[in-house]
Amino acid sequence: MSQPPPTAGNQYTAEHAAAKKAVALAARLCQRVQQDILKLDVQTKADRTPVTVADYGSQVLVSLVLKMELPSDSFSMVAEEDSEDLTREGAQEFLEHVTKLVNETIINDGSYSTTLSKEDVLIAIDGGKSEGGPYGRHWILDPIDGTKGFIRGDQYAIALALLDEGKVVLGALACPNLPFKSVSNCNGDSSGDQVGSLFSATIGCGATVETIDGSQPQKISVCSINNPVDASFFESYERRHCMRDCTSFIAEKLGIRAPPVRIDSQAKYGAIARGDGAIYWRFPHKRSRETVWDHAAGSIIVTEAGGLVKDASGNDLDFSKGRYLDREAGIIATNKYLMPLVIKAAQEAMKEEGILG
Ligand SMILES: Nc1ncnc2c1ncn2[C@@H]1O[C@H](COP(=O)(O)O)[C@@H](OP(=O)(O)O)[C@H]1O
Ligand SMILES: [Mg+2]
Ligand SMILES: [Mg+2]
Ligand SMILES: [Mg+2]
């Protein structure tokens, strides 16, 4: 890691600073909830995935900070959560808890002299209902990526990106439980290291990492391993998020010797961008669709760190199609040497086994 490049010529300087401030404040709320997670604080959404008070609280805080820091912007946000489950009968206590957490975090931070009512909280959450698309500017937010990891006490990330005319131009990724130096070969465990990493990148200006409370940003780059035999790979901790029969088949084809490193959330993109590992891949089951907020921030951080992010057909990811990613058969993040080899192995696996599609 070395000093970051000069920021002259970065047309997104104000947005970059606001995005880092937003994810860092949201991380503070999340850290507090994770220390004291109660059954009451977790709900199950209609799609049967979990959501916590911290997912909602984080979404409110990120939207608040962006609006406070960039007041002249017309605001559009594509975010994961909406208020539907918070307005159902019986959700009053849950909503009150979200509101209390948000207000306590704002007061403790001291940057803004405002507090939010329950109605303000619902409005802020539903500010994330934009469809995004190819025109104009849209923030893309995953207020907690890796909610299952968050509940387990493991890795999670607050992932914020800016889409400008259909292209991701900025990403900020707060990973409160990710060791600051490296995850190396352990599942997020530190070896006496400082914990918490905030990755960020703006287009054309490289990627950096700093601590969540704002140390001097350090430039990062992907690893330069070119022989898959020496490579390590990251994949989802959750068995249902990535087909392991498929990835172990591809790993075998590539001759990878190291066992998979399984980490929740886009912390995997951050770790790849910093060179902690060589490959992150994700081959979800056919029926599941990938959302833009699960990849936007992580992918620009990897590409600005000198890496590549592609689908298994070798196409760039297209974030301009709305709330879902239009991609084919899996997502791969790695360096320029390994990418063609991984794509080839994935495509061979597709043909031989018929397991991707
Ligand atoms: N059955 C499933 N298959 C594939 N992805 C899933 C899934 N259930 C949830 N996900 C997605 O996987 C994300 C977590 O990724 P990872 O496996 O890398 O930790 C979740 O983000 P959220 O936690 O924000 O909902 C969610 O979008
Ligand atoms: Mg979710
Ligand atoms: Mg997510
Ligand atoms: Mg989420």
Topology as a string of helices (H) and strands (E): HEEHEHHEHEEEEEEHEHEHEEH
Q: What's the helical proportion of residues?
A: 25-40%
CATH first level of the largest domain: Alpha Beta
Instruction: Name the CATH homologous superfamily of the largest domain.
Output: Fructose-1,6-Bisphosphatase, subunit A, domain 1
Q: What is the general shape?
A: globular
- Indicate the CATH topology of the largest domain: Fructose-1,6-Bisphosphatase, Chain A, domain 1
> What distance separates the N and C termini?
38 Å
What is the second-level CATH architecture of the largest domain?
2-Layer Sandwich
What is the count of helical runs?
A: 9
Please state roughly what percent of the residues sit in beta strands, choosing from under 5%, 5-15%, 15-25%, 25-35%, 35-45% or over 45%.
15-25%
Tell me about this structure.
With 357 residues, the protein is α+β, with helices and mostly antiparallel strands. It has helices at residues 13-35, 53-69, 92-109, 118-126, 147-152, 244-254, 267-273, 296-304, 338-353; strands at 42-44, 50-52, 77-79, 137-145, 157-164, 167-179, 195-202, 207-210, 218-220, 233-235, 261-262, 279-282, 308-311, 331-334. The chain folds into two domains: 13-220, Fructose-1,6-Bisphosphatase, subunit A, domain 1 (Fructose-1,6-Bisphosphatase, Chain A, domain 1, 2-Layer Sandwich); 228-352, 3-Layer(aba) Sandwich (D-Maltodextrin-Binding Protein, domain 2), CATH 3.40.190.80. It is 32% helix and 20% strand. The protein has a seven-stranded mixed beta sheet with strand order 3-4-5-6-7-8-9, sandwiched between helices. It has a five-stranded mixed beta sheet with strand order 11-10-12-14-13, with helices on both faces. A two-stranded antiparallel ribbon has the order 1-2. It starts with 12 loop residues before the first helix and ends with a helix. The chain binds adenosine-3'-5'-diphosphate and magnesium ion (3 copies). This is 3'(2'),5'-bisphosphate nucleotidase. Belongs to the inositol monophosphatase superfamily. It comes from Leersia perrieri. Keywords: Hydrolase, Magnesium, Metal-binding.
